[in-house]
Design brief:
By secondary structure, this protein is of the alpha+beta class. It has 2 domains: 5-161 and 275-282, Ribosomal Protein S5, domain 2; 166-270, Alpha-Beta Plaits (2-Layer Sandwich). It has 10 helices and 10 strands. It starts with a strand and ends with a helix.
Length: 283
């Protein structure tokens, strides 16, 4: 008899704006941002083991298996739940590393939710989100699975309903170190807090953009190019850039005008995470 198995998406996210409002005594930055999911991302396949072993079948270049957020999430869930199960995990990687669209954080969240289901640990979303926060500030929003207004270090989440446009996402040929951007002395750290209503009326900006474009010419040049066709924005600390369109056709038209050497994809904005929709279908 084959072992129980499960295949789940690990969707991308966009930061529709990102304000850095301060810096705490412990060095972490306080933020305001708005998260929305995309119907595009990685896929994780899980197969239950009875020997407590976590076996990641696909290595990421430059990332030792025990440092991989998927493995760390699985170990954390084992410890928190006391389960004796393990898992074989296969990662189908589509999201770029260092792209600001949540690849590693989304993979970790999918591991927590997927293995919670596969192992029948029954921890629930609140406890899984708390576990996820210890892995990264972006993990809880993926665990909770709702487009959200975020404050604090990004963990104080309030679900929101947003328009769900189509997005063209462009991946410049570089990876951005989040730690480097947040330690750069040029980063603005005193943007006054705003409300969701103020954002809806006036919009927002990405405080990290000036630092990123100064450090990474490839991102600066790609931003200039994309701005010729739409209002181009950067997600998180980069490197990915995006523009919103009313439909898939309009996004594809602009995509076709960009150099073939640029990595791009078109995806639908989602207020409910594709991960949670998949879990509902698998219930």
């Amino acid at each position: 008899m084959s072992a129980p198995s499960l295949s789940l998406p690990a969707p991308a996210k966009l930061n529709l704006f990102l304000h850095v409002t301060g810096r705490r005594p412990d060095g972490y930055h306080t933020l305001q941002t708005l998260f929305q999911f995309l119907d595009h991302g990685d896929t994780l396949d899980f197969s239950r083991r009875d020997d407590n072993r976590i076996h990641l079948l696909d290595d990421l270049p430059g990332v030792p298996p025990e440092s991989n957020l998927i493995v760390r999430a699985a170990r954390l869930l084992q410890e928190a739940s006391g389960t004796n199960y393990g898992a074989d995990i296969r990662l189908h990687k589509r999201l770029p590393m260092g792209g600001g669209i949540g690849g590693g954080s989304s993979d970790a969240a999918t591991a927590l939710l997927g293995l919670d289901r596969l192992w029948q640990t029954g921890l629930g979303v609140d406890e899984l989100a708390e576990l996820g926060l210890s892995l990264g500030a972006d993990v809880p929003v993926f665990v909770r699975g709702r487009a959200a207004w975020a404050e604090g270090v990004g963990e104080q989440l309030s679900p929101v309903e947003l328009d769900e446009p189509w997005y063209l996402v462009v991946v410049p040929p570089c990876q951005v170190s989040t730690a480097e951007i947040f330690s750069d002395q040029r980063l603005t750290r005193d943007t006054p807090p705003i409300t969701l209503a103020a954002f809806r009326e006036h919009g927002g900006r990405n405080d990290c953009l000036p630092v990123v474009t100064a450090r990474y010419p490839a991102i600066r040049n790609t931003l200039i190019l994309l701005n010729k066709y739409c209002e181009a924005k950067m997600t998180g600390t980069g490197s990915c850039l995006f523009g919103a369109f009313p439909n898939e056709c309009e996004a594809d038209k602009v995509r076709a005008r960009l150099p073939a050497t640029l990595q791009t994809f078109v995806a639908k904005g989602c207020n409910r995470s594709p991960l949670h929709l998949a879990l509902d279908r698998a219930a």
